[in-house]
UniProtKB/TrEMBL annotation:
Keyword annotations of the record: Protease inhibitor, Serine protease inhibitor
Protein name: Uncharacterized protein
A single MF term (Gene Ontology): serine-type endopeptidase inhibitor activity
Record has Acetylation as a keyword: no
Keyword Transferase set for record: no
Protein family (similarity comment): Belongs to the protease inhibitor I13 (potato type I serine protease inhibitor) family.
GO BP terms in the entry: response to wounding
Gene3D superfamilies per UniProt: Trypsin Inhibitor V, subunit A
InterPro entries noted in UniProt: Prot_inh_pot1 (IPR000864), Prot_inh_pot1_sf (IPR036354)
């Protein structure tokens, strides 16, 4: 008997990553993700040097950007944003 995560959509063609946003400004990436997936309630900007947990959250997208701290909205994305 297989187990499935209760928060994952049953539809397989739902977008779960945004490779086209690498190199875009953090605020722009956040807006695109929110527009394309309104069910994502936590699209967050994370400095690429930050230590992050490896827990999985089905309504979160971390957007890694090239800043050290503070307001990272104008920093550019350095990795593919994906749900998790």
């Amino acid at each position: 008997m297989g187990l499935t995560a209760p928060c994952l959509p049953a539809v397989t063609d739902v977008k779960s990553s945004w490779p086209e946003l690498v190199g875009k400004k953090g605020n722009e990436a956040k807006a695109v993700i929110s527009r394309e997936r309104p069910d994502i309630t936590r699209a967050i900007l994370v400095p690429q040097v930050a230590v992050i947990t490896d827990d999985y959250c089905c309504n979160r997208v971390r957007i890694l950007v090239n800043c050290n701290a503070g307001d990272c909205g104008e920093a550019t994305g350095t990795a593919v944003p994906m749900i998790g």
